[in-house]
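Re: that backbone. Tokens:
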């Protein structure tokens, strides 16, 4: 278990530091090229057996002019294959031999992360029970992007639980904390459309009552239709819909509007609780929650501020930009808290 913070000169430097951090904490580096010797393309892949049952994470970016960073989740790895072209890939993340920077933005990515220099980064890692890697990057002064992967704190007995999320933020005229075109963490407000759905988080799940025998992935969104038939994994299997988590769902709706104030000692934070619909049997199942991340109102907190609650230390950040002004990246006072585990 570890925490690291610092700054980075460019995207290659940031990912090199992430690679060093991951390897130091027990990950296996399967592929890595920061683009220095292959100017057109950067790529990386890692896995760690204790995070789920051997989940592989891979990335792709345009190394000579990066703006977006594509992020992939699979259950296996084929050496030298492109990210997204590995066994049992979830299908979210631009899956082609190579694409333009604009194409990398069309599916799961960290959009407009740019090429730095990055004011700060924060790596949060937990080895086991359940394991995760959560990353926060300050892409410019007080503007943030988030991405990560890990395993849910599972409820009940089912196969899977490994999740992966990027951060696609709508920077258009509708830039807003409640914009359904955006996707943050495991996000229950994000739209489920043909043009935006591939940006969403995915969860490995097998054997749930509504799933077919070969289905392996859930597609996380604000959609509540019977099936996300538009969306399939790389094997062509349907991805059922999970919901809840950040910005929406029963827990976020009930607890997300409480304001925190360290002066009064009242600091409510809500867990990212994940659910799935079973339309065949007319049930909703609680699958679990994302470990060591909470939603929080940050009206009275600065980006990067630490909060101590009992024996736990939490570090808080805006979803993108802490402001109510009508500017790009605004997310009002909607915040994300990460548990800082160092020993």
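Recovered sequence:
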């Amino acid at each position: 278990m570890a925490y690291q913070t610092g700054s980075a000169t460019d995207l290659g430097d940031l990912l090199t530091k992430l690679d060093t951090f991951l390897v130091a904490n027990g990950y296996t580096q399967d592929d890595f090229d920061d683009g220095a010797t292959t100017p057109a393309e950067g790529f990386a892949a890692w896995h760690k057996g204790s995070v789920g049952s051997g989940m592989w994470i891979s990335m792709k970016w345009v190394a000579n002019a990066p703006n977006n960073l594509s992020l992939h989740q699979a259950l296996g790895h084929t050496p030298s294959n492109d990210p997204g072209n590995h066994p049992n890939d979830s299908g979210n993340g631009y899956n082609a031999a190579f694409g333009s920077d604009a194409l990398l933005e069309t599916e799961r990515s960290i959009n407009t992360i740019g090429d730095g220099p990055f004011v700060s980064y924060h790596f949060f890692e937990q080895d086991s029970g359940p394991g995760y890697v959560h990353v926060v990057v300050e892409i410019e002064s007080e503007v943030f992007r988030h991405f990560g992967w890990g395993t849910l704190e599972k409820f009940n007995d089912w196969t899977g639980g490994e999740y992966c999320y990027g951060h696609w933020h709508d920077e258009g005229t509708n830039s807003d904390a409640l914009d359904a075109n955006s996707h943050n963490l495991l996000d229950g407000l994000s739209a489920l459309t043909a043009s935006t759905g591939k940006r969403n988080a995915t969860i490995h799940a097998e054997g749930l009552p509504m799933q077919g025998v070969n289905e392996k992935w859930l597609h996380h969104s604000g959609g509540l239709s019977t099936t996300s038939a538009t969306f399939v994994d790389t094997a062509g299997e349907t991805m059922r819909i999970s919901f809840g988590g950040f910005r929406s769902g029963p827990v976020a709706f009930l607890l997300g509007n409480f304001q925190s104030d360290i002066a009064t000692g009242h600091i409510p934070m809500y867990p990212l609780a994940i659910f799935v619909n079973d339309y065949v049997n007319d049930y909703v199942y609680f699958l679990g929650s994302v470990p060591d991340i909470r939603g929080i109102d940050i009206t009275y907190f600065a980006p990067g501020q630490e909060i101590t609650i009992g024996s736990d230390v939490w570090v808080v950040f805006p979803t993108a930009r802490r402001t109510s002004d009508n500017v790009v990246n605004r997310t009002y006072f909607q915040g994300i808290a990460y548990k800082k585990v160092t020993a």
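The helical segments are 11-24, 101-104, 250-255. Residues 2-339 form one domain.
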